[in-house]
Fold this sequence. Notes:
Structural class: alpha+beta
CATH topology of the largest domain: Helix Hairpins
CATH class of the largest domain: Mainly Alpha
Helix content: 55-70%
CATH architecture of the largest domain: Orthogonal Bundle
Number of domains: 2
Amino acid sequence: xxxxxxxxxxxxxxxxxxxxxxxxxxxxxxxxxxxxxxxxxxxxxxxxxxxxxxxxxxxxxxxxxxxxxxxxxxxxxxxxxxxxxxxxxxxxxxxxxxxxxxxxxxxxxxxxxxxxxxxxxxxxxxxxxxxxxxxxxxxxxxxxxxxxxxxxxxxxxxxxxxxxxxxxxxxxxxxxxxxxxxxxxxxxxxxxxxxxxxxxxxxxxxxxxxxxxxxxxxxxxxxxxxxxxxxxxxxxxxxxxxxxxxxxxxxxxxxxxxxxxxxxxxxxxxxxxxxxxxxxxxxxxxxxxxxxxxxxxxxxxxxxxxxxxxxxxxxxxxxxxxxxxxxxxxxxxxxxxxxxxxxxxxxxxxxxxxxxxxxxxxxxxxxxxxxxxxxxxxxxxxxxxxxxx
Length: 389
């Protein structure tokens, strides 16, 4: 009885620690998901920043070209003014009138000179306005790039703050798990000792019972008593034992789900899907890394798909939300190897590989691995799938 009490006394401590570990693990998983989403927001901000930088380069190129055009237009106008000045010395308006044979000839000559000047002025005005518009666009893009740069820094800070919390929780989880393991080891040792003592007690009790039977058998009065008829009573209970056997033959009901896997029709380009899946499988075990997009540095979720698809000539942006805008939507029942799958408000993604599974770079401290899209967490956070092949 004392042994039973000590075992029961040890149990609540282990259960408390297990519950604590489960609670911290849930917090770690939530923080992991937040870090993944924050990393994707950071990726998205960087993606937009790159686009702004590209547009700014194009605008500056346009501005340079418009300035060159303005210079050429001004040069041509200057040359014409010089020509008019030089010609004007020998052919004034009076000379044009005196040399003309008719009034229409006079008007045509004067109008021609004025038209040339108006055309030059119009060209210069157009180029100046283009130059001013381009300058304005440049100022706007510079301002947008500055704002976007600040946003990138804020998101990086947000991501790092969440990561710091995650690191703290992971440390605590490690210590609690170590405590659980220690308590479980102590409990296993305690159970071994309890079993050893119980078996020793049982051996003593059996020896005592045997001695008592021996003494009873040696007395003359007990000789007539051994005939006991109760053995006939257990027979009905023996007949009842075969009844539980049939239910154990029911596991074959697990076979139908395996027959449902080949049901979805594969797309016409299934070979490319198989090819990209084969490439992705080669990176199983590569560590997760924020912003990572290569086996040497590690992968984040969108970095993995970007890198893998690039090897078959398909360019994807390093941003889950941007990848979600590519290709065409497919339902879960239509999923085929190579389709992109998205979760948690586009904060996480992976690539479907068949059999209800997908390959992905899940979270900090983890590696590229295979998971099921049917896990409760995945089902609850499902967003959709896209086919880009």
